[in-house]
Design a protein that fits this description.
Largest sheet: 2 strands, antiparallel
Number of helices: 14
Number of domains: 1
Order of helices and strands: HHHHHHEEEHHHHEHHHH
Helix content: 55-70%
Number of strands: 4
Length: about 375
């Protein structure tokens, strides 16, 4: 009976999160498109793009929480999957420029013309079609995660050693994509995008649509992760996280479960990167920087590991704080981020969402003790 009641409460919370995400996104779109610019409630194009970025980062944090919070895999390389999805989208957007580029070449992107490339590399074929780019957005990070995970988990690499090699993976990709002869724009990356599916990226309606699309995908990602976490599969994942050896001894193929969730998480990160690129209008090798992957882990730790909603909350709040602090005191951001991680680790190991129930119970207890007790009956004769 109690378990059924708790399950009902969790189901209601999931629906509330989804409704909240979609409702807020719809409200922002309406305030941006329906109100005049001089209205007190108008939301500017800059704010819309910024909120869209936050939603993409929240999806990345959700992907990290799935592998770290439920399987215990501390990945410091999810920024690589995010960037690969972004590059796949960027390649599609570059092919859509055509003769509108600086050099007017109908086939080659501008950076290839500048570098005297004579023909389009084979791995750019197909990116003039959105359906192909959509497949590659998921296939590129998914395939890398599958191969990496299969080799690592089959060798039973765990703990800090796994974290180190995931970070090494993203750093290797960073160095590779910096090279001009890789065919991805080198240090400058891919930029100067014009339109997406025929809609100009400079139009307010397109930016608003991208924001709402990011909210929808984030909601779908949350539903998928919530369904996994509250299924029999989720129970096995938690068992692997808490007692991997025991789970293996009772007959479960632990490596297969790890590879499955690691691959699914990478695909989610790739989709987040693909939604991110048209909203910022650039993708370059800096997205592979190991610090980006570490920041994603901090977002999850701040929001609450293993809560899903906490990952979304942490991804939005930390990046909002980053926007404020980097505008005022940019040189202090990394110190603030490190300090935040230390504070959360020492005083709030369950994050904001995980700590909230205990904090509310403590406040209720204090308020209950502060209430005056019932008056004593007067003694006889008084």
């Amino acid at each position: 009976m109690i378990a059924r009641k708790l399950a009902g409460q969790q189901h209601s919370l999931a629906l509330l999160v989804v409704a909240g995400l979609l409702g807020l996104a719809a409200l922002i779109v309406v305030l941006h498109l329906a109100l005049p610019a001089d209205s007190a409630f108008y939301i500017s194009s800059y704010a819309v793009a910024l909120i869209g970025k936050y939603l993409c980062f929240a999806l990345l944090a959700l992907a990290v929480d799935l592998v770290w919070g439920y399987v215990g895999i501390l990945s410091l390389g999810h920024g690589a999957f995010f960037a690969l999805g972004g590059y796949a989208m960027g390649m599609y957007l570059m092919r859509q420029i055509g003769t509108r580029g600086v050099y007017g070449d109908p086939i080659l992107p501008d950076f290839m013309v500048f570098l005297n490339w004579k023909e389009l590399p084979w791995y750019w074929f197909g990116f003039d079609q959105f359906w192909f780019a959509f497949i590659m957005i998921m296939a590129a990070p998914g395939l890398l995660a599958f191969v990496f995970g299969y080799l690592a988990f089959r060798s039973r690499v765990t703990g800090v050693y796994l974290s180190i090699i995931t970070q090494a993976m993203t750093f290797a990709l960073l160095l590779a994509f910096f090279r001009n002869d890789m065919g991805f724009g080198g240090n400058n990356g891919l930029t100067d995008f014009k339109d997406l599916l025929g809609f100009s990226l400079a139009e307010d309606a397109t930016r608003a649509g991208l924001l709402f699309a990011s909210a929808v995908v984030l909601a779908l990602g949350f539903i998928a992760c919530w369904a996994i976490a509250h299924s029999r599969l989720g129970k096995v994942l938690v068992a692997i996280r808490d007692a991997e050896s025991r789970t293996r001894f009772i007959g479960y193929r632990v490596e297969q479960y790890k590879v499955l969730i690691f691959t699914l998480s990478a695909i989610m990160a790739g989709v987040a990167g693909a939604l991110y690129v048209p909203q910022v209008s650039i993708i370059n090798p800096s997205e592979f920087a190991p610090t980006n992957s570490i920041e994603a882990v901090v977002w999850v730790a701040v929001g609450g590991r293993g809560t899903l909603f906490g990952a979304i909350l942490g991804g939005i709040l930390v990046n909002f704080g980053k926007t404020l602090l980097t505008n005022a005191l940019p040189e202090l951001w990394l110190f603030a981020l490190g300090g935040l991680f230390i504070v959360v680790t020492l005083f709030m190991p369950k994050g904001l969402v995980g700590t909230a129930p205990a904090a509310l119970a403590w406040v209720k207890g204090r308020l209950h003790r502060a209430k005056p007790g019932p008056a004593r009956p007067s003694e006889a004769g008084e």
